[in-house]
Amino acid sequence: MSLEDQHALLMSNIRRHIDPTAEEEAYFLSLLQTAQVKKRRFLLQEGDVCRHSAFVTNGCLRSYTVDANGFEHILQFAPENWWIADMYSFISGQPGQLYIDALEDTELLLLSKNRQEQLYLEVPKFERFFRIIVENSLVAGRQRILDNMSQSAAQRYDQFCRQYPSLIHRLPQKQIAAYIGVTPEFLSKLRGEKARRK
Asked: Which stretch of DSSP H or E encloses residue 162?
């Protein structure tokens, strides 16, 4: 994807919440770095300090933790038009607990913590934008916890399909299974039942 197309996708995402002038937009875009993460490579590992928030313009990232038994617990997928970061580490400056890796070859636009603070001073309306996406992330995270406690696996799969419609057929079954907290075999059975009901 060309840099111009990446910038257009990002500005479309931002204009859902704020309306920057052409000058403000140009200033914001001047603060960004481009990056690429190859499939199965890391953007961030546990223990790293998260110094950037990342906007995905092409491909897909995921954030996850690994428990003492070696099991992965996926917190988030970030396909095109999604933001991702280890928010605890990004805000606190402390070493993070998350891994963020690429499930596909992925192109990103990165905004460093320092440049984000600079942006807030120069163009305060961007502080509103980032507050909104952090609030949305907080609400979604809380809802996910509640859903995991109260919903059946079928309901969690339906919720995944609503949240990530572009990923239903793009991701390996084991990734989706890890996200909703079931085995790949159980998910296969679930999908079979769902297909038969249609």
From this structure: helix 153-163
